[in-house]
Write a structure and sequence with these properties.
With 772 residues, the chain is of the alpha/beta class. The protein folds into four domains: 202 residues, no CATH class; 191 residues; 169 residues, P-loop containing nucleotide triphosphate hydrolases (Rossmann fold); 70 residues, no CATH class. Helix content is 62%, strand content 9%. The strands form two sheets. It has a seven-stranded parallel β-sheet with strand order 5-11-10-6-9-7-8. Strands 2-3-1-4 form a four-stranded antiparallel β-sheet, with helices on one face. Strand 2 and strand 3 form a beta hairpin. The chain is elongated. The two termini are 15 Å apart. About 7% of the residues have low confidence.
Length: 772
């Protein structure tokens, strides 16, 4: 479908298109007759989300477009949230109830909405907030109370549906958000937007603070728990040190090890010295006489030896343990020296013993003996003390060895607890920093407060009416264009050729279009009939036939009321006007009641006339004859008066093999005729005389344009075509005049200069004189 065809469709239905447009615009005009005035107020809010400064902002701070857009979406969605709108509606209602009750401002519409019995329970004149909480509690009690219904209804002030009409958008790529709200009351319009800004700012700040406060609270609790674990571990270490008398485990362990090595070394030295002293003492005693030995074994000397040994032990013990002070050690040494002097005196009293067995003086031997005895006693005493100390250090060593593992375990627990504690301290500090940062970011401010609208918005009533007319026209036009697209009727010459697979002989327009006064219809129909006659003659001119034999032309259709008789009459009239003699033979049926009188006379078959009388009835037959006579008198049509014959469709219709047999009249002769037009009954409703059909020189299939072509038509045409000795031609009847330009060129009609110009623009044909 091209623009020309669309334009023609719009022109054909132009009055219907205009009527639908006027109807829709009139409906809109009537429905908006009592249109209320609408007031609009606006406000601007600064968020600081994109470029605002906060604690985390620094030299290396990066701009995250996705995160910024997400934050703006969150903020805008909070404004558009249903709970936000519910709270705004209830706060607005609370303010109006308090103002109405206190006499500050009158809201008469509340008297119809909230009964006095309920209002007395809700209103607290002293506080709007208390009234709001009362309204909120009352609403949440059930879903059938008046407040719940009011908030969830279509109320023009307090309903969620009305408040949700607020328009919110981010101003370009800035930190600003624009809010716009409209309603039919100027003061309530401003007040609603102010309450909305307050409510969403509080919600936004609360959400932001809740995001970090829960984290801070978590880390505070974890820090307290970590502190308890660390204190518990430190107390365990303190108790461990107190219990085991440990000041510095590593120093003490080192001291014990060093002291043990030192005692081992000293003990070995003392053992060696003791062995040496004992050997020397034994050597000296071997030189003394038995008498001398016995003298030295008296109780007095032995007692002093014991005392010297004891003092040597005490001195050694004091020196090793560092017990006592220097004065005590000096006193012990002085006492030991006194005993040594006494023993020396006692031994010197033994000079009387004389000489030794080797002949040495006893005094020398006794001095040596005394010296070795003292060495043996002192060395022995020191070795005993050192050995005792070694055993004590071994015990301490055995005690300190397992304490190291326990101490390491406790210290490891302390380290873990301390590490955990420090991490929680760091996390808590970061959370508090984030909390402070979020709180600083949550400080959204209103920079343009909602203003009081002094004048209402301009009415869009005229625009709606105009738009309704345009939509009505476009919608209706679209429906007709769509119907044209989905229309499967034959309609055009191209389709009839495509469906029938036959060559096109001609087309004929709708008779109803003869009423169009701007179209030269007689010229068009005359030209189309001439084209058909021309193609008929061109088709049969090459056919060989016997001399004086008329051309037999078949007129067929697959269905009834395709226009066979109508088209045939025009063709015959044109052929006769050219000086040719034509016979028309058509079947008698209920559609052919205008049978002329001469045709009935020419039938000459009493049995057929009897059947005709029986079928139509006497009155009907009289009417037929009267009408035919009237037509003869009025038109003096030679076709109907002399050349038209009617045949009956009998049971042997298929076997009829000649025109005389078909007409059942032996007096009828085809001699002298140039053309015989045989109109066959519809192929889908009746059989056809196959032998007569096979003798035809030309066959024309009449097809009506305003119907569909289906498989039954194909089958009937195929069967009929097989009986012919040539290819049939098709004539399309009842087409639109505007598509005949493919047959006869430019359609002759009166056109305004606008239509001519429009067609030139559509077709880009600026040099011709064509029009729509």
């Amino acid at each position: 479908m091209n623009l020309i065809q669309i334009s023609r469709i719009l022109l054909d239905y132009r009055w219907l298109l205009i009527s639908v447009g006027v109807l829709i615009s009139s409906t809109i005009w009537l429905n908006t007759k009592n249109e209320q005035k609408v007031y609009t107020t606006e406000a601007t809010v600064y968020t600081g989300i994109a470029t605002g400064f906060n604690i985390e902002t620094g030299a290396n701070a990066r701009f995250d477009l996705f995160a910024t857009n997400a934050k703006f979406d969150n903020l805008i969605n909070i404004i558009k949230n249903r709970t936000t709108h519910e709270e705004v509606g209830m706060r607005l209602l609370a303010h109006h109830l308090v103002s109405d009750a206190s006499g500050e401002e009158s809201f008469t519409h509340l008297n119809k909405i909230i009964p006095d019995s309920i209002r007395s329970k809700l209103v607290d004149i002293s506080s709007v907030d208390i009234t709001f909480r009362n309204i909120e509690d009352f609403k949440n009690n059930s879903d059938t109370n008046v407040i719940y219904k009011l908030i969830n209804s279509g109320d023009r002030f307090y309903s969620v549906s009305q408040i949700s009409t607020v328009f919110v958008k981010r101003i370009q790529s800035s930190d600003l958000i624009s809010l716009r709200y409209s309603t039919n009351h100027a003061g309530i319009c401003q007040q609603t937007l102010s309450i909305l800004i307050t409510v969403f700012l509080n919600k936004y700040k609360s959400i932001k603070e809740d995001q970090t406060s829960s984290v801070v609270k978590y880390f505070e609790e974890e820090l307290r728990s970590a502190k308890e674990e660390l204190t518990k571990a430190e107390q365990a270490l303190l108790h461990f040190r107190e219990k085991n008398k440990i000041i510095n485990y590593y120093e003490q362990t080192k001291f014990i090890a060093e002291k043990k090595e030192e005692l081992d070394s000293e003990y070995q030295k003392e053992i060696m010295a003791l062995a040496s002293a004992k050997a020397a003492l034994s050597e000296i005693e071997s030189r003394m006489t038995i008498k001398t030995n016995l003298s030295l074994q008296n109780d007095k000397i032995l007692e002093k030896r014991k005392r010297i040994s004891s003092l040597a032990s005490k001195i050694t013990l004091a020196e090793l343990h560092n017990e006592g002070d220097l004065r005590e050690i000096l006193q012990l040494r002085e006492e030991a020296s006194q005993l040594k002097m006494e023993m020396t005196d006692d031994i010197q009293n033994l000079h009387a013993i004389g000489r030794s067995a080797s002949g040495l003086p006893m005094s020398i031997i006794l001095e040596q003996w005394l010296q070795n005895v003292l060495n043996v006693e002192e060395t022995n005493a020191r070795a005993s003390v050192i050995l005792q100390r070694k055993e004590e250090f071994y015990k301490k060593y055995d005690t300190f060895a397992p304490l190291g593992s326990e101490k390491n375990r406790i210290e490891r627990e302390i380290n873990l607890a301390e590490e955990k504690y420090l991490k929680h301290v760091e996390s808590l500090n970061q959370s508090k920093l984030k909390q402070q940062n979020v709180e600083s970011m949550a400080s959204v401010k209103t920079i343009d407060e909602p203003f009081y609208p002094l004048s209402p918005k301009k009415s869009i009533r005229k625009i709606l009416v105009t738009l309704g007319f345009v939509i009505g026209v476009i919608l209706t036009a679209g429906i007709f264009i769509l119907l044209e697209f989905i229309d499967t009727t034959i309609k055009t010459p191209d389709r009839v050729v495509n469906y029938t697979k036959l060559g096109l002989l001609g087309v004929y327009p709708k008779v109803i279009e003869e009423r169009k006064t701007d179209i030269d219809f007689p010229y068009i129909t005359n030209r189309l009939i001439e084209l058909m006659i021309q193609r008929i003659k061109l088709s049969i001119i090459k056919i060989k036939k016997e001399e004086n034999e008329p051309y037999l032309i078949l007129i067929s259709s697959t269905r009834r009321q395709e226009g066979k008789s109508f088209i045939t009459e025009y063709l015959v009239e044109k052929i006769q006007n050219a000086g040719n003699k034509v016979m028309i033979i058509k079947p008698f049926n209920e559609e052919d009641k205008d049978i002329d009188l001469e045709s009935l006379k020419k039938i000459g078959n009493d049995s057929f006339q009897d059947k005709l009388k029986q079928w139509l009835g006497i009155e009907a037959l009289v009417n037929v004859i009267s009408n035919s006579q009237k037509k003869l008198d009025e038109f003096e049509d030679p076709i109907k008066s002399n050349e038209t014959f009617v045949y009956e469709i009998n049971n042997d219709f298929f076997d009829v093999n000649s025109i005389k047999a078909l007409l059942q009249n032996p007096y009828v002769s085809t001699a002298g005729y140039d053309y015989i037009f045989l109109i066959l009954p519809p192929l889908l409703r009746s059989e056809f005389p196959a032998e007569i059909v096979s003798k035809a020189h030309l066959s024309m299939l009449i097809v009506r344009a305003n119907r569909n072509w289906n498989k039954a038509d194909d089958e009937a045409l195929h069967l009929f075509q097989n009986s012919l000795n040539h290819k049939s031609k098709v004539i399309l009847n009842g087409t639109r005049v505007d598509i005949l330009d493919s047959m006869i060129g430019e359609i002759p009609k009166k056109r305004s200069w606008r239509r001519k110009l429009a067609k030139k623009i559509i077709t880009f044909d600026f040099w011709s004189q064509r029009g729509i």
